[in-house]
Amino acid sequence: MSTESFTAVANRTPGHVHIVLIATGSVASVKIPLIVKELLQHKRVKIQVVATKASQVFFDSARLKAEHGVNIWQDEDEWTASLSWKKMGDAILHIELRRWADLVLIAPCSANTLAKLAGGLCDNLATSLLRALPPIQTDVEQASLIADRPGESTRVEVWVFPAMNTLMYEHPLTAMHLKVVKETLKYRVEGPIGKGLACGDVGLGAMTEWKDIVKMVVDHYRLERSH
Amino acid sequence: MSTESFTAVANRTPGHVHIVLIATGSVASVKIPLIVKELLQHKRVKIQVVATKASQVFFDSARLKAEHGVNIWQDEDEWTASLSWKKMGDAILHIELRRWADLVLIAPCSANTLAKLAGGLCDNLATSLLRALPPIQTDVEQASLIADRPGESTRVEVWVFPAMNTLMYEHPLTAMHLKVVKETLKYRVEGPIGKGLACGDVGLGAMTEWKDIVKMVVDHYRLERSH
Amino acid sequence: MSTESFTAVANRTPGHVHIVLIATGSVASVKIPLIVKELLQHKRVKIQVVATKASQVFFDSARLKAEHGVNIWQDEDEWTASLSWKKMGDAILHIELRRWADLVLIAPCSANTLAKLAGGLCDNLATSLLRALPPIQTDVEQASLIADRPGESTRVEVWVFPAMNTLMYEHPLTAMHLKVVKETLKYRVEGPIGKGLACGDVGLGAMTEWKDIVKMVVDHYRLERSH
Ligand SMILES: Cc1cc2nc3c(=O)[nH]c(=O)nc-3n(C[C@H](O)[C@H](O)[C@H](O)COP(=O)(O)O)c2cc1C
Ligand SMILES: Cc1cc2nc3c(=O)[nH]c(=O)nc-3n(C[C@H](O)[C@H](O)[C@H](O)COP(=O)(O)O)c2cc1C
Ligand SMILES: Cc1cc2nc3c(=O)[nH]c(=O)nc-3n(C[C@H](O)[C@H](O)[C@H](O)COP(=O)(O)O)c2cc1C
């Protein structure tokens, strides 16, 4: 991705909102490029995308990187890429991304990743990063506060946007997992909404409209458009 | 597998029992060809086999397909095969298989797949299909009723046949997982039975005899032999 | 690894302590060679190493095998290696290792493997072996008793040494998983300890010092140094 390992200290910019956007294997990952592009129309925004293996069929990583200059991190970057960990003292990618982030958006969040979060599993980059996050209270009063320390974010919020087939959503374990994610992990959950889904079913399960996701971020951090 | 994507609407036959047979990584998957062959000796039966990666060492998929003309679906068929999802509007295999099925047999069900079902994980075709099934009451009175709508099954039953080493079966989490699968997901669980196992241990853990599995299906749907 | 499949009956030596050392994807797996080497300085000790895929970046398996003659078992040995299971009657590696073992050390135990153990998942050799272990009471009075039957260990203890980033350790699910592992599975959990970690964080999360792990084994089984 570059000639140096990614570290929080080298990549955080004081006064900016550092957003990790996690894409998972829901068809709603087709919206990832739109979310990235629209967020980047605002001042003080930096983005890193983390993509699960299953998510990658839904958007064109190379093009997204070329057009917007964002990194799209994959599991290989943690383990086998030339800049991944080789010896004691080297940067550990999921830890550096956690340090870098002020906000983690899981948009879309698949049923599978939701189950992994509720079960504490961390067998890929996305879930390892999340497993290394301390839960916080999502407190609207404090929310506009952006950590200004260059080296590390002190307060990381996680917002989850479930997106799945209606019957997957109605599966009884979905509600149980969402409860753990909200109450134990203190993540903010938004959606899903009802509409026609990619599979042809109609019902609750679709990801919150991508424009609304962007708007939530913009409102929360009082971001201004660049031009 | 064919020149067209699999869809429920094109592959359901009114008046037939549509059976998805899931094979998992238990040595009892050596019985898969026998179960398929015997079920197909009956009228009004259609079968799709879904095989986890670990199950595939235990039977010869190519031969099963050649001899009985059944599809053996693998994870690649969902993701990378030429007929897998490429763009919005394409069929999604695990959703189509769920729509197609009147009955899902997990025979054998490994300890690992059982744990995944109880945890709501769906990282392969077999568990994605199951995650997209609404739980129903297994009601013997209603059971002979077969959905006659060509496009989609309205009532899908799931029968689970655990098969594992005796000590795996005695592991305290097995009972907890079976409880979730029965009470929360409303699956029917049959067996395991006691006998000498492949690993040389003797005790409870073996899959219900494959002939008894076939008989349960035959009795439940009042199937008649073809000749 | 050799020209014959591994079986407990052919590889147990009466009067010896048979130790399976499981390495997982924590950076503390760099200590695996030191633990092996130091344990082997004692009489009556035999070791098999089982390494998860993620652990293998942290130590040099080939060198460890060459220098100390220990087997380093990987997932491939269960499935695809020339000596893995091919037909009914063949040895099943995770079952044979369970029969062989008097003591299983998970050192280090990653957050992910801990979550899998608490969830009963067994999708690799390490967790399949553990899933096939009956829980026992870790009773210090009985502990010096070593099974003398050549064919199979009758009493297997499991000791867990968690090792993870401080914030991973503070994640609320860690405590819940440790509780299941201790109370339901009856594993002994030691550590983690506080110190500077590989990722640069300081806090609770580091694996118990490798020398202390060796000392616990030596004391428990009253092992004597060879020379
Ligand atoms: C074409 C296609 C579309 C899918 N859409 C969804 C979806 O919207 N939501 C979901 O939870 N799973 C969906 N799945 C299933 C997931 O991709 C699957 O469970 C995968 O293992 C998720 O992996 P991840 O959670 O690591 O990204 C879809 C699968 C395919 C093949
Ligand atoms: C030769 C062999 C036989 C096995 N037999 C069983 C079994 O009978 N039951 C079981 O639960 N696991 C058994 N396993 C372990 C599973 O294959 C393993 O847990 C795997 O990850 C299951 O994957 P799946 O649930 O995705 O099919 C066996 C493994 C091997 C190598
Ligand atoms: C360089 C590096 C160091 C890691 N150190 C740890 C660690 O100390 N503890 C931990 O729980 N996970 C750690 N991880 C994350 C795990 O390797 C990851 O969750 C993996 O999926 C664990 O797989 P396993 O449990 O099958 O071994 C580390 C990852 C990398 C890339």
UniProtKB/TrEMBL annotation, chains A, B, C:
For this protein, the parts annotated as crossing the membrane are: none
Family indicated by similarity: Belongs to the HFCD (homooligomeric flavin containing Cys decarboxylase) superfamily.
CC terms in the record's Gene Ontology section: phosphopantothenoylcysteine decarboxylase complex
**Pfam families on file:** Flavoprotein
Q: Which UniProt keywords apply?
A: Coenzyme A biosynthesis
Instruction: Outline the extent of the Flavoprotein domain.
Output: 18-220
**Organism of this sequence:** Serendipita indica (strain DSM 11827) (Root endophyte fungus)
Q: SUPFAM superfamilies recorded for this chain?
A: Homo-oligomeric flavin-containing Cys decarboxylases, HFCD
- What superkingdom does the record give? Eukaryota
One annotated GO molecular function is: phosphopantothenoylcysteine decarboxylase activity
Instruction: Return the protein name.
Output: Related to SIS2 protein (Cycle-specific gene control)
Please list the GO biological process terms of this entry.
coenzyme A biosynthetic process
Cite the InterPro entries for this sequence: Flavin_trans-like (IPR036551), Flavoprotein (IPR003382)
